[in-house]
């Protein structure tokens, strides 16, 4: 699918009174591609062609935006990169050089314009661009936009544009092998195309994850990955319109409309800035300016009384204003631009207190407890991501009561459309610069390329109110300080060189990128690294800054150890699971359905496939032995959901000591095992359903440690409310043993301790193996929050072997409805709808004895089809029977 440009171009969009209308010519259609000709040792670098590389040297149709792999797939020349273990046989593509060519027509009228610019929004990555045989550009940064004046290189009639891409591995590897050392990187290739410890990805500004990660495949892409066009204009052009927000509060917004104007000649001009509020209010400001020939920075003050501010979801409306700026010369409009933005203030508050130094986001003066997840790229091949796919993932986050997503630094900066969607949904975005953890070079050329990249990206994205933080990198500092391979590297390299590397990182992340943000977007906080203390001390510490906690999972520690750490902000932690069986069937055959099959190991990237044994470790610790592969898949999701729930609710209960939980990760780049809560096809795993509950604005949190349970009423509401804590103790077979009620005053924006009970007080002699406690927070007699408590890991409990689960399907007023009930306690109920493309309003829950619930079905499906597809199971159905 060819996608239109998503850039919000702030350049000349209209003209009157003799000013020529600008022209934009899309150059996305009509491209061809082939394996590059004339490359030395081409066959040597493409061994998987099996001696038939010549068949890839003929021109074939290409899709732009796109990548070599997606073009080869579209032409039927390779198999599905995600099917079974096809990944290994497709690595040759990233080791070869490729060329793209476009023949396009241009009429004489276009050449009469004063300016004709060729604009590439993204080239991936080492690319030589030629127009009509004239070399114009040698690009080397995937994250940059390239604007080239080309009027002198064009002619009327047919023009030929060529782009030759060089394999980043083939280009850099010979150089790297001659160096005295290789900088520590991330994940070594599993396919032998790079020697162990000799990763080229450190040295190029390209998406790190495409070299392989522990949740995704290795596909080193090349291609014109973002739109390309010709822009023709006369006289004047608005290159950028930015609404700087000097001060925004309830009473007033003091703004400045800042325009970058390109002018061919000096002269007087009038700039008019108009604004429209969400409620339709309107205002304008006019200013006369003197333009010089060349680049001009024009600032027009704008004041708005009682602004309708942008709020994160759950705290108010995500209000957006529309601004229009027009430049007029001699009374005629010669250039215009528009910008949509939200008016808000944001602060990263780091106050000292009894626990150390805080880390809290404050929006419009209100401390916000951040609830969300880390976001990775949407696909291994970015050009395949449509606005609809982005919207679906963001909507899933919103629907699960998340208010923040961290755009992780090993991927790509997203299209403007992504951030516009986040703006409208009220989702805060923690935006990393694109550094995934590898140690960076310290040479000036690398730093300058990154600086220009940062200038372009911050300028492009700074008017999105959803972006509340720019972070320099992911795990560079903590890796350099603490990871074993980095410590070994320090011993190997001489001390002077170690210092140069260390100083280089501090200059890049503590100085260069910080300066870009401070100058171009001073109202948005900057954070040098995640996790860190912003270079004010050690990284990844509990009492200051943000923390990535991986002793659980990566360190194989028990899930209960999530309760042992209470950082100021936990920006990464996670547990893996497999996606649902319908997703697994999209990449595997029936014979592959075993945890240790070749295909399942190929789609398990943690520890080179050994992650499935880590999954079994945690499943066995908490639940027992899966009886078959579908049970293994189901139990992996139960384990992930209940484990992350424990961590997230512990962190929420610790407010204000902790002010944020972002689990790893929300989404997937391909179908396979990972830490995601929403799989590649946007199917919700059990964790996403749990997140909808444990991230709810009001939650009741019972935390049991060492035979004692502390209960908290957690509220994100901005006002206190009265409630009742109802405690009911059940025998799992169905008998209500006891019920107690206690009034609660739930404080605003707080975690309120409401009870502290030891096991003896709760059980009063009942058998803990047969007992469950239900905690309900009631507001005006209605359940505002609900949570069950068990006395031990599930494998130690005497769960009813026959919970008496029943499910019925009927037609409702707005679609199908499921009715689910249980005669006895049903643990970890999961409703599976097979291959049907539907979403349930609730799933992955426990049912008390005698409890029944109704679940809405979102999606076009008739009742009979749904009735035939739907199945239901609970925990006892997935476990092998154990002998006494």
Biggest β-sheet strands, sense, barrel = 6 strands, antiparallel
Helix content: 10-25%
Strand order, biggest sheet? 3-2-4-9-6-7
- Rg, rounded, reads 29 Å
Task: Report the count of strand segments.
Answer: 46
Uncertain regions spanning at least 5 consecutive residues: 1-20, 40-44
Q: Using the alpha-carbon principal axes, give the shape.
A: globular
* End-to-end C-alpha gap: 59 Å
Number of helices: 17
Structural class: alpha+beta
Average of pLDDT:
95
- Share in β-strands: 25-35%
Structural summary, described in words:
The chain is of the alpha+beta class. A six-stranded antiparallel β-sheet has the order 3-2-4-9-6-7. Strand 40 (806-812) and strand 41 form a beta hairpin. Helix 5 runs parallel beside helix 6, helix 13 (611-622) packs across helix 14 (629-653) and helix 14 packs parallel to helix 15.
How is this structure best summarized?
By secondary structure, the protein is of the alpha+beta class.
Which keywords apply here?
single chain; alpha+beta; six-stranded antiparallel β-sheet; six-stranded parallel β-sheet; 17 helices; 20% helix; globular; disordered N terminus
């Amino acid at each position: 699918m060819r996608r239109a440009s998503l850039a919000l171009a702030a350049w000349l969009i209209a003209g009157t009174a003799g000013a020529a209308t600008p022209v934009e010519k899309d150059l996305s259609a009509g491209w061809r591609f082939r394996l590059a000709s004339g490359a030395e040792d081409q066959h040597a670098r493409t061994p998987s062609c099996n001696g038939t590389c010549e068949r890839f040297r003929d021109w074939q149709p290409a899709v732009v935006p796109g990548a070599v792999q997606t073009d080869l797939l579209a032409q039927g020349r390779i198999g599905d990169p995600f099917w079974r273990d096809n990944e290994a046989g497709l690595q040759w593509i990233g080791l070869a050089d490729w060329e793209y060519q476009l023949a396009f027509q241009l009429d004489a009228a276009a050449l009469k314009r004063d300016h004709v610019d060729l604009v590439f929004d993204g080239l991936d990555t080492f690319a030589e661009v030629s127009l009509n045989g004239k070399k114009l550009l040698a690009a080397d940064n995937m994250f940059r936009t390239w604007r080239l004046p080309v009027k002198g290189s064009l002619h009327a009639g047919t023009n030929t544009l060529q782009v030759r891409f060089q394999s980043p591995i083939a280009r850099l590897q010979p150089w790297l092998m001659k160096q005295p050392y290789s900088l520590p990187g991330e994940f070594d290739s599993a396919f032998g195309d790079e020697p162990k410890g000799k990763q080229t990805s450190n040295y190029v500004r390209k998406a790190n994850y495409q070299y392989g990660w522990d949740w995704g495949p290795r596909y080193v892409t090349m291609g014109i990955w973002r739109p390309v066009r010709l822009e023709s204009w006369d006289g004047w052009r608005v290159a950028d319109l930015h609404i700087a927000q000097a001060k925004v509060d309830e009473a007033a917004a003091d703004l400045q409309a800042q325009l970058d104007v390109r002018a061919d000649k000096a002269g007087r001009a009038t700039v008019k800035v108009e604004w429209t509020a969400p409620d339709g209010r309107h205002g304008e400001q006019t200013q006369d300016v003197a333009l010089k020939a060349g680049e001009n920075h024009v600032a027009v003050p704008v004041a708005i009384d009682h602004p309708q501010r942008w709020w994160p979801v759950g705290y108010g409306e995500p209000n957006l204003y529309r601004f229009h700026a027009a430049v007029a010369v001699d009374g005629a409009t010669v250039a215009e631009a528009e910008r949509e933005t939200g008016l808000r203030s944001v602060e990263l508050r780091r106050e000292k207190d009894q626990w150390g130094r805080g880390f809290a986001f404050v929006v419009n003066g209100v401390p916000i407890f951040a609830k969300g997840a880390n976001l990775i790229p949407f696909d291994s091949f970015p050009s395949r991501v449509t606005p609809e796919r982005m919207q679906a993932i963001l909507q899933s986050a919103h629907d699960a009561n998340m208010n923040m997503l961290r755009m992780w630094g090993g991927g790509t900066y997203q299209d403007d459309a992504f951030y516009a969607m986040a703006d409208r949904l009220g989702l805060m975005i923690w935006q990393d610069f694109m550094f995934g953890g590898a140690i960076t070079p310290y040479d000036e050329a690398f730093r300058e390329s990154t600086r220009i990249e940062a200038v372009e990206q911050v300028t492009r994205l700074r008017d999105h109110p959803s972006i509340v933080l720019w972070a320099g990198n992911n795990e560079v500092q903590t890796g350099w300080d603490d990871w074993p391979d980095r410590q070994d590297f320090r011993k190997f390299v001489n001390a002077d060189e170690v210092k140069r590397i260390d100083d280089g990182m501090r200059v890049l992340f503590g100085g260069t990128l910080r300066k870009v943000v401070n100058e171009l977007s001073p109202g948005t906080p900057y954070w040098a690294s995640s996790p860190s203390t912003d270079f004010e001390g050690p990284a990844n510490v509990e009492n200051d800054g943000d923390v990535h906690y991986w002793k659980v999972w990566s360190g194989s520690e028990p899930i209960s150890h999530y309760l042992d750490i209470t950082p100021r902000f936990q920006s990464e932690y996670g547990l893996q699971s497999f996606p649902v069986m319908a997703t697994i069937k999209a990449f595997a055959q029936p014979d592959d359905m075993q945890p240790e099959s070749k295909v399942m190991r190929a789609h398990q990237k943690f520890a080179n496939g050994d992650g499935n044994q880590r999954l079994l470790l945690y499943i066995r610790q908490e639940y027992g032995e899966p009886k078959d592969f579908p049970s293994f898949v189901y139990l992996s999701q139960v384990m992930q959901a209940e484990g992350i729930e424990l961590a997230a609710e512990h962190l929420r209960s610790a407010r204000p000591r902790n002010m944020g939980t972002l689990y790893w990760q929300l989404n997937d780049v391909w179908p396979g095992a990972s830490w995601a809560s929403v799989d590649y096809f946007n199917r919700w795993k059990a964790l996403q359903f749990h997140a909808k509950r444990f991230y709810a604005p009001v939650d009741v949190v019972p935390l049991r440690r060492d035979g004692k349970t502390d209960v908290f009423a957690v509220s994100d509401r901005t006002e206190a409310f009265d409630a009742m804590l109802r405690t009911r103790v059940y025998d799992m077979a169905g008998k209500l043993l006891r019920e107690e009620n206690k009034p609660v005053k739930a404080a605003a924006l707080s975690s309120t301790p409401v009870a502290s009970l030891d096991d003896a007080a709760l059980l009063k002699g009942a058998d803990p193996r047969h007992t469950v406690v239900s905690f309900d927070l009631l507001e005006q007699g209605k359940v505002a929050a609900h949570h069950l408590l068990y006395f031990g890991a599930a494998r130690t409990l005497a769960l009813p072997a026959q919970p008496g689960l029943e499910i019925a399907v009927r037609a409702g007023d707005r679609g199908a409805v499921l009715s689910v009930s249980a005669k006895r306690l049903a643990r970890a109920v999961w409703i599976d709808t097979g291959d049907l493309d539907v979403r349930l309003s609730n799933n992955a829950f426990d049912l008390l004895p005698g409890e029944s619930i109704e679940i809405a079905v979102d999606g076009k499906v008739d009742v009979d089809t749904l009735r035939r597809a739907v199945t239901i199971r609970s925990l006892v159905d997935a476990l092998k029977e154990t002998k006494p």
